[in-house]
Amino acid sequence: MRIESGQTAADAERMETIRMLRDSAIAFLGADLGRVRRLRFQDTGFDRATWREMCGLGWLGVRIPEAQGGLGFGMQEYVALATELGAALVPEPLILVGLSARCLPDDELLNVLSGERIILPAWQEVANALADAPAHTTFDGRKLIGEKRFVMNARGVDAYLVTTSSGLALVEATTQGVSLSTEKTQDGGHFGTLRFDGAVAKAIPVAPFDEAVADATLASAAYLFGLSERAFRLTIDYLKIRRQFGKPIGAFQALQHRAVDLYLELALTRASVESAATTIDAKASIAQQQAAVSRAKARASRCGALVCREAIQMHGAIGYTDEADIGLFLRKAMTLINHFGSERAHRARYVALMKVA
Amino acid sequence: MNTGDNLNELDDASFRATVRDWIEKNYPPEIRNPPKRLHFAENKSWYMALSKKGWLAPGWPREHGGMGLSATKQLIMIEEFERHGCARLNDHGMTMLGPLLIRYGTDAQKARFLPKILSGDHIWCQGYSEPGAGSDLAGLSTEAVLDGEHWVVNGQKAWTTMASDANWMFMLVRTDKTVKKQEGISFLLVPMDVPGVTVRPILNLERHDDFCEAFFDNVRVPRENLVGVVNQGWTMAKTLLGFERIFLGSPRQAAYALSRLEVLAEHMGLADDAVFRDRHAQFALDLADHNALFASFVARLKRGQELGADVSLLKISQSELFRRIADYMLEIAGENAGLLEPIEGNRDLNPAGLFLQARPSTIYGGSSEIQRNIIAKNVLDLPG
After folding, report:
1. Residue A356, Cβ density class (10 Å: 0-12 exposed, 13-18 middle, ≥19 buried)
2. Distance from the B361 Cα atom to the nearest Cα atom in chain A, whole angstroms
3. Which member of A322, B4, B107, B304 has the greatest number of CB atoms within 10 A?
4. Sequence-separated (6 or more) residues with CB below 8 Å from residue A165
């Protein structure tokens, strides 16, 4: 570890932690997309054995304090990990279950962190709503009534952490009065619609739900950034090998300049996501944190859509085949750009928050 | 100079306060927030105030009369100058020539030229571009031929900013026509008040005379005025450009334009218009993200890392955001878009003026297109 001038020992140590976390993620995830491709459009859309291994690495508890069995890291570390998850198109719902984990009491948390039990958050009731929108699902302390939509990876999990008009409720997937229907999504997973018809649930005491949502939204932005950056790298590689008119197509200035535009968008996205993580780590006011998160998610959604669109165009006809890996990135981006809030929704929230911050 | 000694030891906040306080007490009030770039005759009082204080050259080492400040503190100084609305100086000597001489000049050249920059005796301009050598700068054709103990210079330089104020020009000249174009260029220091030099101001789109064309007709320059090695001028000039780009990438122009856009929207009754609000929000987000990107480059400097060719990103991002905001001002200004003077004489309401000011920002210092070429080749490693 080398301490550069103008940098404190704590900064250097932190950069080293981030580097190690990133390196171990890259080593575990590998470059091969075969597993991701095989899991598409199958049953649960992810792999429970891999899930346990990821939990064994502590990835679910990055933001959980050490005293509660987590790694106790800051947001900058979480963002670094989520970026690698995105680059590898990881289908396991780490960011979602990480959100629930932040809100669970200790007696529920241990089995979740170990990977034995998967508890998925269910907050959304209509399309295009942010995670902190008020819930209309009701809970009288015993029974749940209402409907949750766009619950990603809803099939094959053990329980749901449900937002209601009177706080959070935990309901088992197999409880009577819970019904699930699903719709396939472009990335090979699915959205669930959950109906609660008086299902018996357990109240979860006061939980840092807003903070957990801010973390998860920023992690989702980082995932989109990682996905976009790798799609960009694949495209640059392709521009160097694909030959037309007797030279690599990357020698044409029209394509070079468009590639630089994507590179600039990626640089802005990285800066936006990392500065939002710093804002959270600096314990700014919740309004400032949410404004920074909205800025980052708006940017990451824009970047993901732009980079993947251009990546397909620059690949030409091969990019339109299901066989080409670049399509995996486009399909994942299509599923994620508006999840946790669209560019437009976050832009509007940013403006509203800047007025109060 | 004793002031510089303790300034570097101050923490950033105290340093900022010290600078701010001194500017407030010493800046000539009559030239605050000038509507155009000032000539030396107009900004000389400020130049000399900084000279006397020893603050003209924040980046130079102290042994040469500079302040020897860290990159972060230099940026703080720039921010404070901008904040107060300080006029830009005739600064080519401090920002461009000085650092180059310190790195490549002989001891005699340093002793002769550096003190004259700091005293205000020598006002420098930069002779790079030519009518036939803009983006393709290495294709320049102004030539210098050795004749005994003198270089004889013939040719024409164009777009030489503030040349009419300058009594010296540092210029790139062709000294070998037989080799690859980048390998036959030298760096020469030329006095402007000698026979054979003619300077003509050029009126720009803002109807200001910031830049000039300069003609050289058998101008005789002493042999010892060549800096570095003959035919190595291109490499020397290029090393300076990275540092220039981080300053051209500082958010100040875009931030200024956004604040003027808000004033204009208010004036045009659009401040609560939903379409305007959404466009404005997008600009605000773009600026906030640009600030984050700029800060990440400054942090790299702070850690002592060299900046790579990707610093061109900053220049593209800033200048194009500035331009997009100015374009939009014209779009919402109604007939005022065509006014030659500010609306109702109010300097804060000058959409046409700001629109024109934004035009050259994506051209000078390497156009957006050239910056994209640089990134494509040197960062993305695309074939050429």
Report:
1. exposed
2. 18
3. B4
4. A134, A135, A136, A137, A138, A139
Partner A, chain B 261-320, Cβ-Cβ below 8 Å: 277-278, 281-282, 284-286, 288-290, 292-293, 295-296, 302-305, 310, 313, 316-317
For A292, nearest residue in chain B (alpha carbons): B288
Taking the Cβ of residue B103 and every Cβ of chain A, the question of whether any pair is shorter than 8 Å is answered with: no
Q: Does A351 touch chain B (CB under 8 A)?
A: yes
Q: Which pTM does this prediction carry?
A: 0.89
**Torsion-angle region of B4 (φ positive above 0: left; ψ -120 to 50: alpha; else: beta):** alpha
Among B15, B245, B285, the strongest candidate for a mutation testing the A interface, having the largest count of A CBs within 10 A, is B285
How close B275 gets to chain A, by Cα (Å)?
12
pLDDT beneath 50, residues of chain A:
1-6
Q: Is the pLDDT of residue B92 over 50?
A: yes
Clarify whether residues B82 and B36 are in a common domain: yes
Residue positions counted in chain A: 357
* pLDDT tens digits along B344-382: 999 889 999 999 999 999 998 889 999 999 999 999 999
Which residue from A minimizes the CA distance to B9?
A6
Q: Which residue in chain A is spatially nearest to B301 when comparing CA positions?
A: A6
E strands along B223-326, which residues? 226-227
**DSSP type of residue B89:** P
Instruction: Identify which of A63, A152, A155 has the alpha carbon closest to the alpha carbon of residue A109.
Output: A63
Task: Give tens-digit pLDDT for A1-31.
Answer: 344 444 577 888 899 999 999 999 999 999 9
Catalytically annotated residue among B183, B244, B335, B344: B244
- CATH number for the A209-356 domain, one of 1.10.10.10, 1.20.140.10, 1.10.1060.10, 3.40.50.880? 1.20.140.10
CA distances to A280, B78, B359 from B82, rounded to whole Å, are: 29, 6, 21
Examine the fold and report which residue of B38, B62, B89 is the final residue of a domain before the chain moves on: B89
* B307 and B259 inside one domain: yes
* A9-114 CATH pick, 3.40.50.720, 1.20.5.320, 1.10.540.10, 1.50.10.20: 1.10.540.10
Considering only CB atoms, A6 lies closest to which of B302, B316, B371, namely B302
Q: Are A357 and A291 in contact (CB under 8 A)?
A: yes
- A252 near B CB under 8 A: no
Contact B380 A272 (CB under 8 A): no
Q: Has residue B242 been placed in a domain?
A: no
CATH of the domain at B158: 2.40.110.10
Has residue B137 been placed in a domain? yes
Pick the CATH number of A119-204 from 2.40.110.10, 2.60.40.640, 1.10.10.350, 3.40.1190.20: 2.40.110.10
What is the band of B301 on the pLDDT scale with cuts at 50, 70, 90?
confident
Task: Residue B64: give the domain boundaries.
Answer: 3-89
Asked if B331 is an active-site residue, the reply is no
Residues B253 and B369 in one domain: yes
Give me the mean pLDDT over the B189-199 stretch.
97
Q: Do A259 and B285 touch (CB under 8 A)?
A: no
Task: Give the pLDDT of residue B248.
Answer: 83
Q: How far is A102 from chain B (nearest CA, A)?
A: 28
Task: Give the count of domains, chain B.
Answer: 3
Taking CA–CA distances from A11, the nearest residue in chain B reads B303
Contact B40, B162 (CB under 8 A): yes
- Which residues in chain A have their CB less than 8 angstroms from residue B304's CB? 4-6
φ, ψ of residue B240 to 5 degrees: the values are -80, -20
Same domain, B173 and B132: yes
Please, where are the H alpha helices in B32-70? 40-53
Q: Is residue B104 part of a domain?
A: no
B positions 112-171 inside 8 Å of A (CB): none
For residue B134, being part of any structural domain is answered with: yes
Q: What percent of chain B has pLDDT over 70?
A: 97
Q: Kindly report the CATH number assigned to the domain that includes residue B48.
A: 1.10.540
